[in-house]
Amino acid sequence: MRSLLVSLLAGCALAFGALPATAAGGGSERIRDLATVAGVRVNQLIGYGVVVGLDGSGDAATQVQFTGQSVQSLLSQFGVTLPPGVTPQMKNVAAVMVTAALPAYAQPGQQIDITVSSLGNARSLRGGTLLLTPLRGADSQVYAMAQGNLVIGGAGAAAGGSKVAINHLLAGRIPGGATVERAVANAALESDVIHLELNQTDFSTARLVAEAINRHLGGEQAQPLDARVVQVRFPGQGSRVRFIAELENLEVALAAPPARVIVNARTGSVVINQSVRLGASAVAHGSLSVTVSSTPVVSQPAPLSGGQTVVTEKADIRIQQGSGALMEVPASADLAEVVKALNALGASAQDLIGILQAMKAAGALKADLEII
């Protein structure tokens, strides 16, 4: 019986077979989908904070001591001092880590989204409020301040040792929960050139991007520096922002991608792209199944023997070997033909992984085999 995976591959073949002739190569994409401008990037921020207002689902102070220390430090800023050696026992407070992504060119006063995650043993952060938390960058400088009410996409209840939970209750988001306090300096537009960094390393793509830009500008202002970076010189006059916007929307006719087969050994997923080719080969693949079953057996002692009735198990082991007949796999130069040839083997998803590995070792699979 064919597996769901093989059926899925057959569907992929139909989809690629319906593409127009121009997609036989790599199709076309905008430069903004292929590359990014060097220096225009996000910066990750992180901070440690305290969430209050929980309904008895916060950290247990006896087990998570830094939560109590954080509360003491917070209260001391408001003139509240606890006696030495006293640790507050609070069920409505939780220690959390706050993370955010600071966009490029973000200015002071703008708001960004933040993610709040439990750090201790709180049961839920639902209904909590994050207190004022500084968010720092890799240079330990404060770039934003976070505060607000958490949005938790789940719910839970517990009673009498039983509990039920929907989705995850220990992490949530605060839309617009942080205010930018400091801008990150960016000199991407101050130089005479910009560098377009490709999302994937490929010499052919770098050459094609440079050629598309030069055709649009009517000169030799773009040149690939390597398989990852294309250098473009700014025009002598005009808005540089408008110039970059024009470049980002240019269509680039791409070459066919490298032939690649991606195998996820944990889930049994196999993905084959349109550049994969098969050489003629013969495949024999037999399935081996082992079945172990146990049957309870009662051992009854003889009358007046003083023995006890004992229940034992009788194990029955069966081994079944598949036929493993030799099948010819014809040479295939089209994705639809490749899938048709693999379907003819009638292999399951896990069996298909082993077959593809063997075909690659034998030189019949004309593609890079990547196992993730």
TrEMBL record:
<comment type="similarity">
    <text>Belongs to the FlgI family.</text>
</comment>
<dbReference type="InterPro" id="IPR001782">
    <property type="entry name" value="Flag_FlgI"/>
</dbReference>
<keyword id="KW-0282">Flagellum</keyword>
<keyword id="KW-0966">Cell projection</keyword>
<feature type="signal peptide">
    <location>
        <begin position="1"/>
        <end position="23"/>
    </location>
</feature>
<keyword id="KW-0969">Cilium</keyword>
<comment type="function">
    <text>Assembles around the rod to form the L-ring and probably protects the motor/basal body from shearing forces during rotation.</text>
</comment>
<comment type="subunit">
    <text>The basal body constitutes a major portion of the flagellar organelle and consists of four rings (L,P,S, and M) mounted on a central rod.</text>
</comment>
<dbReference type="Pfam" id="PF02119">
    <property type="entry name" value="FlgI"/>
</dbReference>
<keyword id="KW-0975">Bacterial flagellum</keyword>
<protein>
    <recommendedName>
        <fullName>Flagellar P-ring protein</fullName>
    </recommendedName>
</protein>
<keyword id="KW-0732">Signal</keyword>
